[in-house]
Here is the input.
Amino acid sequence: MRSIRTFFLFLSLFATSQLFSQDGPYCIQGRFAETPYFTANEILELKDITYGAAMRWPSTVVDTLKMDIYMPDPAVDPLAQRPFIMLIHGGAFYGGQREDMQLLCMEYARRGYVAATMSYRLGWDCDPNSGLLICFFCGSQADKLKVAAYRSVQDTRAALRFVASQAGNYGIDPEHVFVGGTSAGSVAAIHAAFLDQEQADIFCPDCVPAVGALDSSVNEIQAEYTIQGVINNCGAVMNLDIFEAGLPMPMISFHDDGDCIVPAGYGYALGCLNCQDFSGTWDQRNEYVIPG
Here is the structure.
């Protein structure tokens, strides 16, 4: 139900943007609305598309990174270009899979978007079976969690560069790109939209030596795209300073009150059972980053 709420709430925000103004290019009756515009049989599912490869870290394993794209069939859709949405799965940067977002991608595509779900590099020396005891079992790895989060931003930006470079093949408008996710996926999405290298270096001085610069990893593609909005579902930010210049794009944020992995409002990341090992890792004051 959380994903469905994300969908409808974001559409409400999206409908107020210039994209759907009376003079906007996508003001089409019945499209981009709460009810489907296409049937499931009219959606193409393009699976296992490689967008890059990079060393995982802290291991030396090289991961080949893929995405799945869902788009209206050009045989039934007259639009040459469509807004694009990238959805990123959660899992504390050590679990989850892109298939977790496939149903939501299908629902966006049925409403007229091109939607994709991506894999990104996982793992930071934490036992994926830790459950709510993650803080006790993995607390000594807090600095590696920072690198894992930074690494997810590298992968997200690389995936968006790839999509922009292939916009003609997938009927995508690279000037109307949106990113979102759940939990760790929201962390990746927010920072892909707002973080710059200077801020990242302050938060994580070990990141560049470990995995390289934000925009020169995973692939060598140079392609322009414009992020127009962000869906933050149970995510957080490294530091509120990433918004210091104001919000240049709309973002909708909402959260579960009982979340102790990424607390609502403000709290320790992975702070279940009041463990504070990750107290310097995240700034979770989500109420301050929602545009009014």
About this structure: Confidence is low (pLDDT under 50) at residues 284-292. The first strand starts at residue 43 and ends at 55.
